[in-house]
Design brief:
This protein is about 45% helix and about 10% strand. By secondary structure, it is of the alpha/beta class. The two termini are about 40 Å apart.
């Protein structure tokens, strides 16, 4: 496993390139500031906390800069193990082929908003208060402050917005999407049409807090191999779906890094408690290389090193079934596509097609979505049989049922249902997919929703966006589910995920709507005209784009199946409130921090 400390190249003149990953915070402070400012900078890096942890019956401080470093280094592992090739390529294009470093820096900056007065009025601040005052980071009771309950993710957005505006670099206008991605790492996104005007009593005085806030991105940039924060900022624009998936992967890195402070993890490995206590006292000699052991250990303790390795074994086998029309259509395409299959899907056909897609686009696995519980049980058994034939019975096979306790033993990270979409092979009803493409819930001041609810949707979508998706029996969906399916196809197309969709028995109108939805996601425009050859009697119809131009390919000739009437809606349906989140007009939001559609979110 490649770790961050093994390939970081410090470009500052004060850094010895031969000492890869060995540059300490003290050395970075020396490169950034003269005496006595460097000592003040180090003291503030030690004093401002990101979290606390419990050891020996007492709460101890955990410096914010250490949590940011932890998250950046976990981000390097997330890049290696989870990010699909399409998202890696997009970040490379946006950062002059330094996508991995850029992703590390983005992960490391997710909690920048904790470097403010407002965050430090909470429980963490109570632990930090004496040291903050000693370093000139005061909470002036006379300063206008407004709400003291400003979420730290919103404060991150505010600081990034101020940074971009104050940089004087017009090329950063193309990076404004990063503001909202980082704000949304807990799944709640605010309206970009409304500037945030925070009182000085929330952000902090420029002379004290302001100097510290400006130093944080510079320190993280040098640690991740950039000359400066300006150098680390991406310039290009990712697609809307790629941005949403990126927010989910930042949340993944944050959760894994945060587990360094989990009592359950520390109890399994007391060495972590000693390491955390040492950093609570002194951070000036902390280096990426010195931090590798902790990051690698928590990656292993979470179980996040188990399943990617299994998937490598899974794709090494040779195809056992004879090529069919779906396999031929999939092999003919070098671009992510929607494959509409006018025949009943079978387990061996889906399995062979998914393996081809996974290998071609370097995906993290496959997901099979089914309309109901009986279908889930049938398909789980069928795919289990395919995996058993590959010699993986007892490892990946139990994951498919979502009753996966034997396979998940010792993998704390995957115990939460929202994180199981990151597993390499899943079969499930489509509820999680529908949830992942709906607007994240707002956090009003009356209902915080405890953070966990917000981050569910981003992690879920990241899992789906990194896989080959196969969806069975679209003709068995109700009207509400078909609308959800349209929305899901737009998002998956925007994120570059290939989709296999069984449409036998579905009406011509619904087929066109689903194909148009995927095409709209590719182009992120509305409306989309389908080519004239779309309605031909083909066994497989592929919808994709080359150089921005929509294409339709057909494979085989199908005998039209009898049309089926969509099933009736029930009380458990997603409901009539489902509408386009990708292309609809921006909503007005609610509460102190208005939530709007993700289309509006990611526009300039």
């Amino acid at each position: 496993m490649r770790l961050a400390g093994s390939n970081v190249q410090m470009s500052d003149a004060a850094t010895d390139p031969a000492n890869t990953g060995g540059t300490s915070l003290l050395e970075i402070a020396r490169a950034m500031a003269d005496e006595p400012e460097r000592h003040l900078l180090l003291a503030r890096l030690q004093a401002v906390l990101g979290k606390t942890f419990k050891a020996s019956g007492a709460f101890h401080p955990y410096p914010l800069i250490v949590h940011l470093i932890d998250t950046a280094q976990v981000g390097s592992l997330v890049w290696d193990a989870y990010l699909p090739r399409g998202l890696r390529d997009a970040l490379d294009r946006a950062s002059a082929d330094r996508g991995r470093q850029c992703f590390m820096w983005i992960c490391g900056m997710h909690d920048w908003g904790k470097a403010t007065v407002a965050f430090n009025r909470g429980d963490v601040g109570a632990v930090a208060a004496p040291e903050l005052d000693a370093q000139g980071l005061h909470d002036d009771p006379a300063a206008p402050r407004g709400s003291t309950d400003v979420p730290h993710a919103v404060l991150t957005r505010f600081l990034f917005n101020q940074y971009i505006r104050g940089s004087g670099d017009p090329s950063l206008r193309g990076a404004d999407w990063l503001i909202y991605v980082l704000e949304g790492h807990h799944g709640v996104f605010s309206s970009p049409a409304r500037d945030i005007a925070l009182n000085p009593g929330s952000v902090g005085a420029p002379a004290g807090w302001g100097a510290y806030q400006r130093a944080v991105p510079e320190v993280m940039a040098r640690l991740t191999g950039f000359d400066s924060a300006l150098d680390a900022m991406p310039r290009g624009r990712l697609t809307t779906g790629e941005q949403y998936a990126l927010a989910g992967y930042v949340a993944v890195a944050d959760k894994i890094a945060s587990s360094l402070l989990e009592n359950k993890m520390i109890s399994q490995n007391p060495w972590l408690a000693d390491r955390n206590l040492a950093l609570a006292e002194r951070i000036d000699h902390l280096t990426l290389a010195a931090n590798e052991q902790a990051v690698d250990r928590i990656w292993h303790l979470n179980g996040t090193d188990r399943f990617p390795a299994m998937w490598t074994k899974l794709t090494e086998g040779r195809g056992r079934s004879a090529p069919d029309a779906l396999a031929a259509a999939v092999r003919a395409r070098d671009e992510p596509a929607l494959f509409l299959v006018d025949a009943a899907l079978t387990a061996d056909s889906v399995w062979e097609a998914a393996r081809t897609l996974i290998e071609r686009f370097e995906l993290g696995g496959f997901h099979l979505g089914v309309p109901d519980e009986p279908s889930r049980l049938t398909w789980s058994s069928a795919i289990d049989a395919e995996l058993t034939a590959e010699g993986l019975d007892g490892s990946l096979a139990p994951l498919l049922s979502y009753k996966a306790q034997p396979a998940l033993d010792g993998t704390w990270f995957y115990q939460s249902a929202d994180r199981r979409t990151l597993l390499p092979a899943t079969v499930d009803v489509n509820r999680q997919l529908w949830e992942s493409v709906q607007l994240p819930v707002p956090k009003s001041r009356e209902n915080r929703d405890k953070e966990a609810k917000g981050s569910v949707v981003t992690i879920q979508f990241a899992g789906f966006a990194s896989k080959a998706i196969a969806l069975t029996d679209a003709a068995g969906y109700c009207a509400c589910e078909l609308r959800c399916l349209e929305e899901a196809l737009m998002w998956l197309a925007s994120a570059g995920a290939p989709v296999i969709l069984e449409v036998a028995g579905l009406s011509r109108e619904h087929r066109r709507r689903l194909a148009s939805a995927y095409a709209r996601g590719i182009a992120e425009t509305y409306p989309v005209e389908l080519p004239a050859n779309f309605d031909g009697p083909a066994e497989v119809t592929a919808v994709y784009a080359v150089d921005g131009r929509l294409r339709i390919d057909t494979t085989g000739t199908a005998t039209a199946a009898p049309l089926r009437t969509p099933k009736g809606c029930t009380d458990e349906c997603p409901g009539d409130e489902i509408e386009s989140r990708l292309l609809s007009r921006p909503g007005r939001g609610s509460g102190a921090w208005p939530v709007r559609t993700l289309k509006g979110l990611f526009e300039p």
